[in-house]
Each structure stands twice: as C-alpha cells, then as structure tokens.
Specification:
mainly alpha
Length: 17
Amino acid sequence: HEKFEKEAAELGKGSFK
C-alpha cells in the first residue's frame, strides 16, 4: 500500500510497510 508507506515515511518509522 503506497499510502501506508508514504505515511510511514513522513513519520520516519516504516514499521507499517
């Protein structure tokens, strides 16, 4: 899901990937 990746990138986590 690109949406989750984008949100994770903004949060600086990436665990949602």
